[in-house]
Design goal:
Number of strands: 2
Strand content: 5-15%
Oligomer: single chain
Helix content: 55-70%
Shape: elongated
Distance between the termini: 21 Å
Strand order of the largest sheet: 1-2
Radius of gyration: 19 Å
Largest sheet: 2 strands, antiparallel
């Protein structure tokens, strides 16, 4: 499921790639490097990276299943409720 608010170059990133870039942006912003315009652009890109990471995490959570073993030894699975 693609989020239309996420730029195409970010949509192609893995979770780890997006998280690494987001960490670099946060570090840059915390240090106050660059101009105001640059900081605003970095903030916007960081917000898109965060949305992408959130989306990737939701996709992963949807794939996780809770595996149960019954008293008789049978195995069953059901979606894991993480909330």
């Amino acid at each position: 499921m693609a989020d239309n608010n996420i730029p195409a170059d970010i949509s192609k990133m893995s979770f780890e790639q997006a998280l690494d870039e987001l960490k670099a942006i946060v570090a840059k912003l915390e240090q106050g490097q660059g101009t105001l315009d640059s900081a605003i652009g970095d903030y916007d890109r960081g917000a898109a990276l965060k949305r992408h990471c959130d989306s990737k995490l939701r996709e992963a959570q949807a794939k996780i299943e809770k595996i149960s073993l019954s008293a008789s030894g049978g195995v069953s699975s059901e979606p894991l409720d993480v909330e």
